[in-house]
């Protein structure tokens, strides 16, 4: 992943808005983009955060006053700097190729130089936990040198991410008892314990935690602040930023914003902020949550800006169906034959390869039809799609005959692929009857093998995602013919939009068309 200058400035503003205390903006001595960042960020009015410049201790061969990187930090205009130095004797001898005492001098000189120029200093003791296990006395000598030189915060870094929680807590507690400076922790996730180690670090005395939004970072990533912050605030009673109560409700939106800037798909299973973090599928779970949400939720999802989701599948019971009915704004009696019939239909569909838990629009149409809330607005009477090579190139064409009331319209359209041709033809045919569909766009299309309960894979499953600029919805189609599956999902996508507009009262144009042409 790579951030542009504008990406970094936009994320800086979002982090400040959320209330993060320190933002490491980059390494001003390493590349022109980071140097430009520190010039440009001065024009951003920050209310809560302080932008920090990052760098390393001086090189072995020069004095601190002559070190280009240290002088770039001083010249960046920041008030606080984070510099890292070696605390593992292996690195000192094998990577720096210098004597242990020389490395200690480098740490002291670098911190002191920045302090003499009026900067607050956060010292990152790189590879501290490995260094402590290799040579306890030397690792402590390094961090004490940084403290004695004036470092305000000494950060113990598990740079390789290999220290497990029990050992991490023990070492952090021992070191925190020896230092007067504020102790911080910096954890990598190579053992899958970066979040756990960060939390244990706080319990052991650390009061400064470094991490990233969504845990992005080197190799397996850094500690995920989207997990650490709510754990500390909601469950442990710590205050982690400078905004008033309620700021955590912006956590999910912050997480999604960073994913969007990076063009990364959000992790649906990410704790606290993931789409599935408060999703319930098993019938026993859903029934319990509807009676008392604490039964299967460790916090109220709204505290971090998330929402509760109920899914339906072959595991569903009537509680799942009722939850979705209420979520869709419809009504039904749990003991009605319609609910029993819905449960059977859903299980039959999943037996045939459908996955409705990821396609709420298709599920809505199924429920609305069974409960009598559905009114047929149009019908695709005939369709044909052709894909062929033409003059050394590729062409696709689709024809649609659409019926609305007693009127029919036949349309032929070309596209840059068969699905695009289908969509263009369907949109053109529908537009004369339902002009509001102009706002709808196809934004994602996915195909997978649809295995049946017998384990056969003769069908394909198509998911199509739509948007009208304000909301998104997903439909699913399954068939042995990939174009038939696409057509099913496309038709359901437009049908869902019109049905919801009709019920919500925003579909005046479609209502007038139906009134003119009959049902």
TrEMBL record:
<dbReference type="GO" id="GO:0009098">
    <property type="term" value="P:L-leucine biosynthetic process"/>
</dbReference>
<dbReference type="InterPro" id="IPR013709">
    <property type="entry name" value="2-isopropylmalate_synth_dimer"/>
</dbReference>
<comment type="similarity">
    <text>Belongs to the alpha-IPM synthase/homocitrate synthase family.</text>
</comment>
<keyword id="KW-0028">Amino-acid biosynthesis</keyword>
<dbReference type="InterPro" id="IPR005675">
    <property type="entry name" value="Citramal_synthase"/>
</dbReference>
<protein>
    <recommendedName>
        <fullName>Citramalate synthase</fullName>
        <ecNumber>2.3.3.21</ecNumber>
    </recommendedName>
</protein>
<dbReference type="InterPro" id="IPR002034">
    <property type="entry name" value="AIPM/Hcit_synth_CS"/>
</dbReference>
<dbReference type="Pfam" id="PF22617">
    <property type="entry name" value="HCS_D2"/>
</dbReference>
<feature type="domain" description="Pyruvate carboxyltransferase">
    <location>
        <begin position="1"/>
        <end position="249"/>
    </location>
</feature>
<comment type="pathway">
    <text>Amino-acid biosynthesis; L-isoleucine biosynthesis; 2-oxobutanoate from pyruvate: step 1/3.</text>
</comment>
<dbReference type="GO" id="GO:0043714">
    <property type="term" value="F:(R)-citramalate synthase activity"/>
</dbReference>
<keyword id="KW-0412">Isoleucine biosynthesis</keyword>
<dbReference type="InterPro" id="IPR036230">
    <property type="entry name" value="LeuA_allosteric_dom_sf"/>
</dbReference>
<dbReference type="InterPro" id="IPR013785">
    <property type="entry name" value="Aldolase_TIM"/>
</dbReference>
<dbReference type="GO" id="GO:0003852">
    <property type="term" value="F:2-isopropylmalate synthase activity"/>
</dbReference>
<keyword id="KW-0808">Transferase</keyword>
<dbReference type="Pfam" id="PF08502">
    <property type="entry name" value="LeuA_dimer"/>
</dbReference>
<dbReference type="InterPro" id="IPR000891">
    <property type="entry name" value="PYR_CT"/>
</dbReference>
<dbReference type="GO" id="GO:0009097">
    <property type="term" value="P:isoleucine biosynthetic process"/>
</dbReference>
<dbReference type="Pfam" id="PF00682">
    <property type="entry name" value="HMGL-like"/>
</dbReference>
<keyword id="KW-0100">Branched-chain amino acid biosynthesis</keyword>
<dbReference type="InterPro" id="IPR054691">
    <property type="entry name" value="LeuA/HCS_post-cat"/>
</dbReference>
């Amino acid at each position: 992943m790579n951030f542009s200058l504008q990406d970094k400035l936009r994320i800086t503003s979002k982090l400040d808005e959320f209330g993060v205390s320190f933002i490491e903006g980059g390494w001003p001595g390493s590349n022109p983009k980071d140097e430009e960042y520190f010039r440009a960020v001065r024009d951003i009015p920050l209310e809560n955060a302080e932008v920090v410049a990052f760098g390393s201790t001086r090189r072995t061969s020069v004095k601190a006053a002559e070190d280009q990187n240290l002088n770039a930090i001083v010249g960046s205009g920041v008030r606080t700097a984070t510099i890292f130095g070696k605390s593992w004797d292996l690195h000192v001898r094998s990577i720096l190729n210098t004597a242990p005492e020389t490395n200690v001098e480098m740490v002291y000189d670098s911190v002191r130089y920045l302090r003499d120029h009026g900067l607050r200093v956060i010292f990152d003791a790189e590879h501290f936990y490995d260094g402590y296990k290799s040579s306890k006395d030397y690792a402590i000598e390094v961090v004490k040198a940084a403290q004695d030189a004036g470092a305000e915060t000494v950060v113990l870094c598990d740079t390789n991410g290999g220290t497990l929680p029990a050992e991490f807590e023990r070492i952090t507690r021992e070191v925190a008892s020896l230092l007067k400076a504020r102790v911080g922790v910096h954890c990598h996730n190579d053992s899958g314990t970066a979040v756990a180690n960060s939390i244990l670090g706080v319990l052991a005395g650390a009061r400064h935690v470094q991490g990233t939004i969504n845990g992005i970072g080197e190799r397996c990533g850094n500690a995920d602040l989207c997990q650490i912050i709510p754990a500390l605030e909601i469950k442990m009673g710590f205050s982690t930023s400078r905004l008033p109560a309620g700021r955590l409700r912006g956590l999910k939106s912050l997480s999604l914003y960073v994913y969007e800037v990076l063009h990364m798909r959000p992790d649906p299973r990410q704790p606290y902020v993931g789409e599935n973090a408060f999703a319930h599928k098993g019938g026993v779970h859903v029934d319990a949550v509807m009676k008392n949400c604490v039964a299967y939720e460790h916090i109220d999802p709204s505290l971090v800006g998330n929402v509760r989701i109920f899914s339906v599948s072959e595991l569903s019971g009537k509680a799942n169906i009722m939850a979705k009915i209420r979520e869709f704004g419809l009504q039904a009696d749990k003991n009605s034959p319609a609910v029993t019939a819905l449960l059977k239909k859903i299980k039959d569909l999943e037996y045939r390869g459908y996955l409705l838990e990821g396609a709420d629009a298709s599920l809505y149409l199924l429920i609305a039809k069974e409960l009598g809330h559905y009114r047929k607005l149009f019908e695709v009477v005939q369709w044909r799609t052709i894909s062929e090579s033409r003059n050394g190139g590729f062409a696709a064409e689709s024809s649609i005959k659409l019926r609305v009331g007693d009127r029919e319209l036949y349309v032929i359209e070309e596209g840059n692929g068969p699905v695009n041709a289908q969509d263009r033809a369907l949109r053109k045919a529908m537009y004369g009857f339902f002009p509001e569909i102009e706002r709808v766009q196809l934004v994602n299309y996915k195909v997978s093998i649809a295995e049946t309960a017998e384990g056969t894979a003769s069908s394909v499953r198509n998911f199509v995602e739509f948007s009208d600029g304000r909301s998104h919805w997903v439909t699913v189609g399954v068939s042995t013919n990939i174009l038939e599956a696409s057509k099913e999902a496309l038709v359901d996508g437009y049908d869902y939009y019109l049905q919801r507009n009709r019920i919500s009262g925003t579909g005046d144009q479609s209502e007038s068309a139906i009134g003119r042409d009959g049902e």
